[in-house]
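Dear H.,

Thanks for agreeing to be a second pair of eyes. The structure we're designing against is below in token form, covering all 322 positions.
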């Protein structure tokens, strides 16, 4: 019986692409033949800089076109300021496209800077596990729907008061927000977790450091809101390690953002959600509880489906199929 070829291995600069060795955990995927500590450390700075520059350029082009084509009656500076507060759907669209640049940046960094096959950003199997992703999306819808339904029990109010022009925002939320949320996972729980995680042998460093960067990149915020975002990064970072891929984290982030923006649009304004800089401790504790509930259920689902948490031995799998 012929033996399947072994996965390609290479060193950085030879022009080939490396594959992680069988048994490699998600956080250690970049710690292979092409690894150098300085490359991972510098890669974090390069990735964030490229993301900001590329995203900012794309957003600027979109907003410039939006002003010329539909808002030329306003001074450009006033339009740009209002658009960035999400007072116009074009501002939300440009911002989400800007954030969506995290997907190509993450893949490009792994491919060109680390010379590792970029598909391993997605999972230890080098692919999107579609069944798991779809089930996690359904699970996230159920968990976050219950969370929204219990808002009055936590002292909040829900009143039907759609903002003017909500239809344009709704189209952006349904079509572009999922890309924005997925891109943040590709960048923070994907590339940054792997790059930072490769610096040490233990997985906790990549999870904590990427969660801290994720929270800090949300800008001005009070302590409870910062801790809520930091906790989200920690919980879904753990979930990525526990499930061996980004699918569950993407599902949680997508549904959280879609629900949050739709809820804001039908009860107050999208701009209010965009400019939020402070929440109370009750809100933070409630948020963290929901993140934990979803993550535990998603981890149980991954266990039930028998998902791999480490890079599989493709030679052995091929031999078995033969």
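And this is the sequence the design step returned. I haven't edited it by hand at all.
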């Amino acid at each position: 019986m012929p033996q399947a070829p072994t996965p390609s291995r290479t060193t950085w600069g030879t022009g080939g692409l490396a594959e992680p060795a069988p048994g490699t955990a998600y956080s250690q995927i970049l710690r292979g033949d092409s690894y150098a500590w300085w490359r991972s450390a510098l890669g974090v700075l390069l990735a964030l800089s490229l993301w900001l520059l590329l995203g900012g350029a794309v957003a600027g082009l979109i907003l410039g076109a939006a002003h010329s084509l539909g808002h030329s009656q306003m001074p450009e500076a006033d339009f740009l300021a209002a658009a960035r507060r999400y007072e116009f759907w074009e501002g939300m669209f440009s911002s989400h496209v800007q954030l969506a640049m995290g997907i190509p940046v993450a893949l490009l960094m792994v491919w060109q800077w680390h010379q590792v096959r970029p598909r391993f950003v997605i999972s230890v199997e080098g692919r999107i596990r579609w069944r798991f992703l779809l089930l996690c999306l359904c699970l996230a819808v159920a968990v976050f729907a219950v969370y929204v339904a219990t808002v009055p029990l936590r002292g909040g109010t829900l009143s039907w008061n759609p903002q003017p022009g909500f239809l344009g925002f709704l189209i952006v939320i349904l079509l572009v927000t999922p890309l924005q949320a997925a891109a943040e996972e590709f960048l923070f729980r994907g590339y940054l977790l792997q790059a930072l995680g490769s610096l040490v042998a233990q997985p906790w460093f990549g999870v904590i450091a990427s969660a801290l960067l994720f929270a800090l990149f949300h800008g001005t915020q009070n302590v409870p809101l910062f801790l809520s975002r930091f906790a989200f990064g920690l919980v879904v970072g753990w979930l990525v390690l526990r499930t061996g891929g980004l699918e569950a984290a993407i599902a949680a982030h997508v549904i959280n953002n879609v629900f949050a923006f739709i809820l804001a649009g039908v009860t107050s304004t999208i701009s209010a959600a965009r400019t939020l800089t402070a929440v109370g401790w009750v809100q933070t504790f409630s948020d963290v509880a929901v993140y934990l509930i979803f993550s535990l259920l998603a981890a149980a689902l991954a266990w039930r489906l028998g998902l791999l948490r480490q890079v599989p031995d493709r030679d052995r799998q091929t031999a078995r199929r033969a």
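Two observations from my side: The longest helix spans residues 37-70. The radius of gyration is 21 Å.

Warmly,
E.
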